[in-house]
Structures are given as structure tokens and as C-alpha cells.
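input
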Amino acid sequence: MKYISTLFVMIALFSVGTVNAQSASKLNGTSYTFVMKDAVNGGEETFDQITFENNQVSSQSFSKTGFTSGKFIEKNGVNTSNFEFTLTSPTEGTRLYRGKVEGNNIDGMIIITNKSGQQVTYALRGMNTAEWNRTQEMKKAK
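output
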């Protein structure tokens, strides 16, 4: 009986450790700069920066037009973090982001829905903002 009790205690401790490890965010405290473009029609590229902080995410560009920050959902793999979040504006509609961070790179899509329900899907691709800035400085130096 003593061994069974010890086994149960070890299983319980392992389970708590696993739950805590899975809930730790790899994205909190990071910022990503990216370019986005209409995935179907092409057109002009737009740049933006999103910041993950305190289990919230915000968009530098969209916050200027009334979009609030939102909570994000994150699923972590060994080398990747998949994420999803929605930013909302009472006057503009919603921006649903789905994507993946792998190393310094971010890619995914944004489904933009305006107030009347019309949708446009944008593809996004970029990198950690610190790496983005280093890359831009290196391009200027050439």
C-alpha cells in the first residue's frame, strides 16, 4: 500500500508539472513585424507590428484605428507556437489572426471582416521585431 501511495503522489506531481509547463507562453514579451497582403487579389503590401504581452496581443497599426487588444490562444510545439486571436473595433469590425511562430519567423493569415460582414483574407509573413530591425539596418548599410 505504501508503494501505491508513493506512486500516486509521483503521478500527481508529474501531472502538475506538465500542466504548468504547457501553460507557459513562448509568445509573451515578444513583438513581431510583418508584411501583409490580400491573399487572393494581391495588391499593396501593408506593414504592421503585433506585440504579445501579459497574455494580451495588440496591433500597432490597427490600435490607431480603434481596435482593442485581445487575448491570444497559443499551442506550443517543440520549436513552434501556433496562435489565434481576434482584435475588435466597434466601428471597423474584426481582425482574426491565425498563424505560427517558428524561431524568429512568423507567418499566417488575417481574416478581416468589416461591419457589414464582408471578408478579405490577408497573408502575413515577417519576423521578430528585433531581427526585423537588424535586417533593415543591414540593407541600409549596403
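quick obs: The chain has one domain: 25-141.
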